[in-house]
């Protein structure tokens, strides 16, 4: 009976994916879009890659500005649905493929915390990160979207210390978003090499999906550089 149920579920999943409109990922290698491509791989989602050569400024040309007027990647399109903003893309894709188990259902007690930490990435971590990286004076604490950098980071550290994943024992799409981001920001020295951050990032970046995309990114980045003679 169990084997029959599993095969039936597999057939339903395959049928749903066959009937689903294709996903296009607008992409540049070694950018914020890397995390989105890793997520697509983790979800087992079929997608088409529309690569943009940032070294030639392709993301600032009219063709792509019609997709995202900000000239930023990633962006994804599925049929008439066009989604920009990394946080929105993460939620959109994970909900599109619930069978992958990377998104808590609406009635799951983890759904609220899951949404909280994905939103925290965009509303607190990213603004704090840019102020820190550019040595900008942050806004007064009562006007800052992230209070202050140390508090923002300490709050994240306390959550990750509960581990092994952001929400405890269960890995979600939020971990792909955070794990890839922390890997890059630790490497560039913006986030300190604290054991909690380093071990968490390594847990995500050691996964086969990240390793595959890292290798593919290196090859694509070299091709893009060669296209401009560099």
Automatic annotation (TrEMBL):
Enzyme Commission identifier(s): 2.5.1.18
Annotated keywords: Transferase
Stretches assigned to the GST N-terminal domain: 20-101
GO molecular function: glutathione transferase activity
Principal EC category: transferase
PANTHER family: GLUTATHIONE S-TRANSFERASE FAMILY PROTEIN (PTHR44051:SF21), GLUTATHIONE S-TRANSFERASE-RELATED (PTHR44051)
The protein, known as: Glutathione S-transferase
